[in-house]
Amino acid sequence: AGVFYGTALLARAWAWPIPLRGILSYLGIINAVLAIFNLLPIPPLDGSHVMKYLLPPAWSLRYQQLGRYGILILLLLLATRVGRPIFEFWMTPVETFFRLARASLASVMVALVSLYRESSFTSFPRVPSPLSIWRETLFRLARVSLASIMVALVSSYRASSLTSFPRVPFPVSMDWVTSFRLAMVSFTSA
Fold first, then answer.
1. I want to staple 31 with a disulfide (CB 3.0 to 4.6 A). Which of 1, 108, 128, 178 is the partner?
2. Is residue 51 located within the same domain as residue 100?
């Protein structure tokens, strides 16, 4: 909570944009409210661990056994008049944060549209479709697989001690077309 609120204070001092300052301050408020909510002594929350050490040992054991019903107790508390102010206290900053974020996003979109209209571009740069990216990836994988198969065939041909294969002297440096042709010749002559 302190990190967001401290950053919001720095943003205010350094004159950052108003939507960013508002978002940071509301994030700090939301974190503080969640920290307070988390300290409630209800078993699934962290406040139950604090309460466990404050109670006498006999009561502490019974309090821990209540832990399996903690979520149900928490939901019932939030559904009653007692829990309603806690829930509203937590939801008000969250709703305000989302409203502010929506307004900030809208202002960014308006700025982008006005920038686009003022620019000399007639259209945005072309972005490849997911289908073309997928097709290109498959072609690359097929090329790599074909190359590895050719290397395996050529190396097995070289390492072969069978006399049924015609022995062709391999040049020291060979391109992939030549190695493919030799692999196909040795493969078909078997």
1. 1
2. yes
